[in-house]
């Protein structure tokens, strides 16, 4: 890879062997790089390949503005926690996490404690990301001073969830979390159940809804006209379908997006699973 522009000691904008612009990070990588010259591969810790039309030049400039030691700690920690390998298409994740860590370190140094109100929701709805966030926090704490407290894993988990969406901040993730909680409350109320969020059927429902939000963000909902499978779901699960229609109304009111007939049908299928399968309820 050849250097196009040196941003600082730790960040270099380069061009890889395929001719695409990439962002390279690593301690001292900028110090030893020269424009138009090959970059020493031994100094490369992470290769960011900006996706979705994001401007590599702009992203590299943003990365260069982050404290070098904080960025280094985060980049290495993401790898150690098993969240991202050496090559990544999500520089915005590293930027968001590093920015958060920098703010958290500043608060910790000043003795300021932050209580995150979504702790229970994150642990229940995003169990996988929360587990990743705990590993990430432990890896970061090996490289920063002062050490960050355990509640910071909640915020890091939200950043990991947010990385699956096109938005650049956490506002959509907060909204999504509230909508999922509202949906589960409707299922409990309509069917007289206490839905076990840790159950397999509820976990499948939560995963389905998260991908539904991705499709909404990308304007790629399932077929706009009801398919044969969708018709079958509605015919076999009429009560779950009525619940799903109410859930669709919640989505429309909160996000301003009307769900297609097939999206409603698949919601109904997951509602039926939660309300009929043995692992879907608690005594």
UniProtKB/TrEMBL annotation:
<keyword id="KW-0677">Repeat</keyword>
<protein>
    <submittedName>
        <fullName>Transcription antiterminator BglG</fullName>
    </submittedName>
</protein>
<feature type="domain" description="PRD">
    <location>
        <begin position="61"/>
        <end position="170"/>
    </location>
</feature>
<dbReference type="Pfam" id="PF03123">
    <property type="entry name" value="CAT_RBD"/>
</dbReference>
<dbReference type="InterPro" id="IPR036650">
    <property type="entry name" value="CAT_RNA-bd_dom_sf"/>
</dbReference>
<feature type="domain" description="PRD">
    <location>
        <begin position="171"/>
        <end position="281"/>
    </location>
</feature>
<dbReference type="GO" id="GO:0003723">
    <property type="term" value="F:RNA binding"/>
</dbReference>
<dbReference type="InterPro" id="IPR004341">
    <property type="entry name" value="CAT_RNA-bd_dom"/>
</dbReference>
<dbReference type="InterPro" id="IPR050661">
    <property type="entry name" value="BglG_antiterminators"/>
</dbReference>
<dbReference type="Pfam" id="PF00874">
    <property type="entry name" value="PRD"/>
</dbReference>
<dbReference type="GO" id="GO:0006355">
    <property type="term" value="P:regulation of DNA-templated transcription"/>
</dbReference>
<dbReference type="InterPro" id="IPR011608">
    <property type="entry name" value="PRD"/>
</dbReference>
<dbReference type="InterPro" id="IPR036634">
    <property type="entry name" value="PRD_sf"/>
</dbReference>
């Amino acid at each position: 890879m050849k250097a196009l522009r040196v941003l600082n000691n730790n960040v270099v904008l380069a061009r890889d062997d395929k001719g695409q612009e990439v962002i390279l990070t690593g301690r001292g990588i900028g110090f030893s790089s020269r424009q138009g010259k090959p970059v020493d591969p031994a100094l490369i810790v992470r290769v960011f390949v900006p996706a979705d039309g994001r401007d590599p030049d702009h992203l590299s400039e943003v990365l260069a503005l982050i404290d070098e030691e904080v960025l280094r700690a985060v980049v290495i920690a993401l790898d150690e926690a098993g969240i991202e390998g050496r090559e990544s298409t999500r520089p915005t994740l590293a930027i968001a996490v590093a920015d958060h860590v920098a703010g958290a370190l500043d608060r910790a140094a000043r003795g300021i404690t932050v209580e995150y109100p979504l702790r229970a929701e994150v642990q229940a709805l995003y169990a996988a990301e929360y587990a990743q966030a705990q590993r990430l926090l432990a890896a970061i704490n090996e490289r920063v001073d002062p050490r960050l407290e355990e509640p910071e894993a909640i915020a890091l988990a939200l950043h990991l969830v947010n990385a699956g969406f096109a938005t650049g901040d956490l506002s959509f993730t907060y909204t999504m979390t509230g909508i999922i909680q509202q949906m589960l409350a409707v299922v409990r109320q309509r069917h007289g159940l206490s839905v076990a969020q840790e159950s397999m059927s509820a976990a499948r429902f939560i995963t389905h809804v998260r991908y539904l939000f991705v499709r909404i963000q990308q304007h790629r909902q399932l077929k706009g006209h009801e398919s044969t499978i969708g018709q079958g779901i509605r015919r076999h699960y009429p009560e779950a379908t009525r619940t799903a229609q109410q859930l669709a109304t919640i989505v429309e009111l909160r996000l301003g997006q009307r769900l297609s007939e097939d999206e409603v049908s698949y919601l109904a299928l997951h509602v039926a699973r939660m309300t009929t399968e043995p692992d879907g309820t608690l005594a």
